[in-house]
Amino acid sequence: MSTSKEKILFCLLSALGIAFIFSLPRVVIALYIQFNYGNNISADTQSKIIDHAIKFSYTYVVALVFLWLNTTRKTWQYYSIKINTHKFYIRLLLNIILFIAVRYISINLNMHLAAIPMVPKFHFFLFHISLTLEVLFCLFIAEIYMLIKRNQQISLNNEILLKSHAEASYEALKNQINPHFLFNSFNTIQSLIDVNSQAAKQFISNLSTVYRNILNSFHKPVISLNEELQSLRAYLDMMQERHNGNLQVTLNIQRHHLDKFLPPISLQLLVENAIKHNEVSNRRPLTIIIESEDKYIQVKNQLQPKKTAEPSTGKGLYNLNQQYQHICNQSIQIRKTGEWFIVILPLLQQQNIS
To answer: Where is the Signal transduction histidine kinase internal region domain (predicted)?
Structure first.
């Protein structure tokens, strides 16, 4: 069932229940008086039934209007005036205005009068008590409903985030166990063993660090930039060793950004994409620049596409963007100039993380 249909059904059924609850005392009192003092009452039964039906219908409409107002979260704009019902004080003000309007209409339609003999002042007293309680009851039910919907949405967002994060981690892990990647890594290790055993050990250590960090990140929606950079440096050392110094990476990270957060393996993913789609050779070394500024970190690489392009699913950037959408309702920015491919990632603070 769609959200709008679900809300309509909720409002219709809840208004019916509220109308029944607040009409029942009137009926009970009328029956009590009819039973005990029936001989003194001249009004016929049919007119009383009609009166109760009208009161019930009116109570139903009032409940429906208040429920609809308090379950609608949106922004209305009339010229330069904006009304945002997401804000509690705006809803409170609208409810007060609507209450005054309903009270005025009710009195002018004589809805405050009951089909039972009663002192006029007591009619007004019961009417105000009944209307006030009905409105408060509507507000209470609407807020409970919206709280439940919000919790459901948070749960859904968490599930989507976990799925996107798992897919991103899986994609990164798949790249690292790709036969081509493993073949190149083993070739690099083999070539280093006889020439520089210490470098071979370091390469194996970096390879182990990369795998460990990917596996550890499966259950973390975000990590600090400092942690991400530690993992990235291990990966960069491997890539620079493998490409014989033809990969030139500049890290320009401001110290006060190190305690900010971002999804795990984000920077590694962007570096992987740059190496995957661009030529890295003695003739054309590839430059990658990673720098933080303000509330963002950007990764940019020179555009020098390979002659034989490797297939791309596009899942990496898509999943990364999905993670940002569900963590903080922000998006990554992708720019392409004549010489550079640039991806800008928001740096998150603890309060930005939902």
So the answer is: 169-245
Q: Is-contact 51 6, C-beta < 8 A?
A: no
How are beta strands 75-78 and 81-84 bridged, if at all?
Answer: antiparallel
Residue 299 has which token pair? 């990764």
pTM of this prediction?
A: 0.53
Pairing of strands 286-293, 261-262: unpaired
Helix (H) or strand (E) holding 352: none
Task: Spell out the domains of the chain, with CATH numbers in brackets.
Answer: 3-156 (no CATH), 177-352 (3.30.565.10)
Closest CA to 223 of 173, 168, 180: 168
Name residues whose C-beta falls within 8 Å of residue 156's C-beta, 6 or more positions apart in sequence.
none
Q: Residue 100 carries which DSSP code?
A: H
For the chain (length 354 residues), average pLDDT per consecutive 10?
76 87 67 54 57 79 89 77 78 88 82 57 72 88 88 74 61 52 70 80 84 74 88 88 87 92 88 89 92 91 82 72 81 90 90 59
Q: How does pLDDT run across 220-269, given as a tens digit for each residue?
A: 778 899 989 988 998 888 888 888 889 999 999 999 999 999 988 889 88
Cβ neighbours of residue 18 closer than 8 Å, sequence gap 6 or more: 59, 60, 63, 67, 134, 137, 138, 141
Closest listed residue to residue 206, CA positions, set 183, 178, 176, 179: 176
Side-chain half-sphere of 275: how many Cα atoms within 13 Å? 19
* pLDDT tens per residue, range 137-168: 889 998 898 888 888 877 777 676 666 666 66
The answer to whether 220 and 261 have CB atoms below 8 angstroms apart is no
Return d(Cα 279, Cα 277) in angstroms, integer.
7
Q: Does residue 44 contact residue 30 with C-beta atoms inside 8 Å? A: no
- Cα separation, 95 vs 89, whole angstroms: 10
